[in-house]
Amino acid sequence: MGYDVKIERNLLHALFDLKGSFKDLNSYMKEHIASLPEEPNSYVAHGTWKILYLGINHWILLAPIEEERDLLELLKPENCPDSISIVLISDTLKFFRINGVNANDIMSIASPLNLNTDAFTDNNATFSEVFGLKALIMRDGDGYQFGIDQSFGDMISDYLDLTIAT
Predict the structure, then answer these.
(1) Are 82 and 97 part of one and the same domain?
(2) What is the sign of the dihedral through the CA atoms of 97, 35, 114 and 94?
(3) Final residue belonging to a domain, choices 75, 91, 107
(4) Which is more confidently placed, 1 or 13?
(5) pTM of this prediction?
(6) Is 59:69 a contact under the CB 8 Å cutoff?
(7) Does residue 120 share a domain with residue 68?
(8) What CATH number is given to the structural domain containing 74?
């Protein structure tokens, strides 16, 4: 059986790990974003940026890699208050995008996460597993995007090739 999907591999994003209370982080970031998401395992988009709320006092800012240097200057992680933490983590994750008619089929093979639209909506993002590895998974257009530890990028690429082989 052939799958009607498009897989983009080893995508790079500017990633910042954000930690602190909602109040403190929202106050520090208010010049740059309207607000942080308040619902766990969700994200909000602000232009080309996505702010993912992944756990208690834990967010990730995801943006195009080309904006990394500008974001460092805007966010000034070295000058943030002691009550919050902003850490550049762009080099830690490799991302894959799976789009197309059969994107759900591929993701159901790769991940145990319930990706039905009533359980995992258009603005959901969470940590789960992809091929047994911890992965950051989010909806993306007519499919999904997921990030895994960069050291496993080639292996996951091979697994995806095996999954879509006819």
Answers:
(1) no
(2) positive
(3) 91
(4) 13
(5) 0.91
(6) no
(7) no
(8) 3.30.70.1520
Is residue 1 over pLDDT 70? no
103-162 pLDDT tens trace: 999 999 999 999 988 889 889 999 999 999 999 999 988 899 999 999 999 999 999 999
Inter-helix orientation angle 153-164/103-110, to 10°: 120
- Over residues 54-58, the mean pLDDT reads 94
Which domain-ending residue is among 91, 121, 149? 91
Read off the amino acid at residue 112: P
Instruction: Give Rg (Cα) of the chain.
Output: 16
The range of the structural domain enclosing residue 52 comes to 12-91
Spell out the residues 6+ positions from residue 43 whose beta carbon is closer than 8 angstroms to its own: 37, 50, 51, 52, 53, 62, 123, 124, 125, 138
Query: Are 115 and 107 within 8 A, CB to CB?
Result: yes
Single-letter residue type at 155? M
Do 35 and 106 lie in a common domain? no
